[in-house]
Amino acid sequence: MIINFDQTPEEFYRLSENALGKGEWVKALQYCEKALDGKRSAEYRLSLAEIFLKMGRYREAMDAALLAIAQGSDRKPEAFDVMAKATTATGKLYDSLFYVMGKAQMEGDDDTLDAMDEVMDDLMGSFSEPPKNKPNLFLVGKKEKKNLSREMDKAMFFFSSEQYEKAKEAALSIPEESDLFEDAQDIVLRAEARLGDLVSASETAKKQLERDPKNGFALYVLIELCGEKEFVSYLPNVGDDPSDLYFAIEAADFAKEREIETSLADRLLKASPYSPEAYFVAAGAYLNAKQKEKSLSILKTMFSIYKKYPSSLLLKQWSRFDKTDLMFGGTMPERVENALYGFAKKGLKTPDDFTALFVSDREFRAAIRLLFEEGREEVVNKVCALLEEIDSPKIRRAFEEMLISTFIDHAVKREILCKLLLKKHRGKLYLAPSAVLVKVDCRKPARYDLYPEALKIAYAEVLSFTTCMFDFRCVKELSSLTEEVFDRGVSIEKEDPTVVSAALAEIIISENDLPFTQRVGMAGSIVRTFFDLGKAQSAKKDRLVAKLRSTF
């Protein structure tokens, strides 16, 4: 039981460490959160990262470790160790190598070398048979797999930008002997499903099942999208990966196989005991099976270990469901999300209203954070607009910390970063565009005061776009690239800031060796997609690009 009387942060931290030593993860987490409420030290954040790591909450372990580093912690080796373990556990082995190497440079001790050996063993184990010549592991992703990796990058980019035909074409270029083949086939299947080409999707899914009878997404496509219910018998034996279980639960729900659905939900909770998405899906499965009390009990268990959710608000809304068959894949149901939106919307009137509620109401803060993570566009746009007017350091700090969260979508991070850059003229902002912490310099260019207003806005938009868009290895060059191009733009006549931003972004990414840009026209495609340009704006952008290039 958590002690309720007042204690110092140091005492709560000691209790947390004691619980951690006993393997009582939930209790350790609760004590550590209480310690952090009183003192936001890097030491406590690192302890929180260790607890999340033990619980299998790897993204949150990354967030806590990154925040510890952002505080200027002198315990970077410990933070790098946490991040290496978290990225290894999620299959990001090259990211893991980066962190292990960083730790090795700072310490060079036996533990670090052992961790490096473990990661290398994992990498070598990814080969179906030992290669004759041991590869240079630091070149695998850059040279030997460069072309195929680039095709996969293209496939994923096209899919995320809803260009499904191009995504399928790029994914089909990955040969069967490549270790990227299964991932590529997954993109092919998803693209066919989005295109509504169910004949091809059925064929692709059946071939996937021949190679892997436990593939949950393939079963989902066949049962729910293609209506081939003869594959229902495969569902009980689906794989233990949470993704496979999520899609299998949706397929079982579609087929009204309630016993299979709840059985899969139980497996999901065992596979992901500290994942909020798993609890929502499992609660929905039991609600569909008309076991409402069991459904609410699952949510209460989640709220006991996952404090950022506004529990009373969500439980109240969940209990009002008067029908079953909740269709959702790993996120909360739309009606519950709408309740969050309605609750948050009350405080989105003026900067003062928002500031007062954000500072005083924990459930309001939790609702805002969740809606950011869910990508609720109305809330994101409204809050980002308010950020330009809010002067509260506490709120600005909270949104700076959101930039480090690995939960927040890149597009949302880009919006937050842009607003903070417009207001902040010194120091640094810390951002995690992937699993790597990046320092974004808030220093303005030497000629910034001469910039027209549209160009000032464009500077923040372009720097935030390029920082969030590209690999961390490019980030060190981005500020200088941005300033170099913006020197050309000082003479720009009054123009829509979005058009100016898009034009300058296109010049930067087309004239430099950045990812995705080696193919003619790719820079323009990226810019049109991410700056959401209409036909008229695109034409203006093209004219401005030509003008700026001619003056260089």
- Residues in helices, as a percent range: 55-70%
Strand content: under 5%
Q: What's the end-to-end separation, in Å?
A: 68 Å
Highest CATH level, the class of the largest domain:
Mainly Alpha
Shape: globular
- Give the total of domains: 4
Kindly report the CATH topology of the largest domain. Serine Threonine Protein Phosphatase 5, Tetratricopeptide repeat
Structural class: mainly alpha
Strand order of the largest sheet: 1-2
Radius of gyration: 25 Å
Major beta sheet, specifics? 2 strands, antiparallel
Low-pLDDT segments: 123-146
| CATH architecture descriptor name of the largest domain | Alpha Horseshoe
CATH superfamily of the largest domain: Tetratricopeptide repeat domain
Q: pLDDT average, as an integer?
A: 81
What's the helix count?
29
Identify the quaternary structure here: single chain
Beta strand count: 2
Gist?
The protein has about 550 residues and is mainly α. The protein has helices at about 10-20, 25-40, 40-55, 60-70, 75-90, 95-105, 110-125, 140-145, 145-160, 165-170, 180-195, 200-210, 215-225, 240-255, 260-270, 275-290, 290-305, 310-320, 335-345, 350-360, 360-375, 375-385, 395-405, 410-425, 455-470, 470-490, 495-510, 520-530, 535-550, and strands at about 430, 440.
SSE diagram, text form:
Elements: H1 9-21, H2 25-38, H3 42-55, H4 58-70, H5 76-89, H6 93-106, H7 110-125, H8 140-144, H9 146-160, H10 164-172, H11 181-195, H12 198-211, H13 216-225, H14 242-254, H15 258-271, H16 276-288, H17 292-305, H18 311-318, H19 334-345, H20 351-360, H21 362-373, H22 377-387, H23 393-404, H24 410-423, E1 428-431, E2 438-441, H25 453-469, H26 472-489, H27 497-510, H28 522-530, H29 535-550
Antiparallel strand pairs: 1-2
Helix pairs in contact: 1-2, 2-3, 3-4, 3-5, 4-5, 5-6, 6-7, 9-10, 10-11, 11-12, 12-13, 13-14, 14-15, 14-16, 15-16, 16-17, 18-19, 19-21, 22-24, 23-24, 24-25, 25-26, 25-27, 26-27, 27-28, 27-29
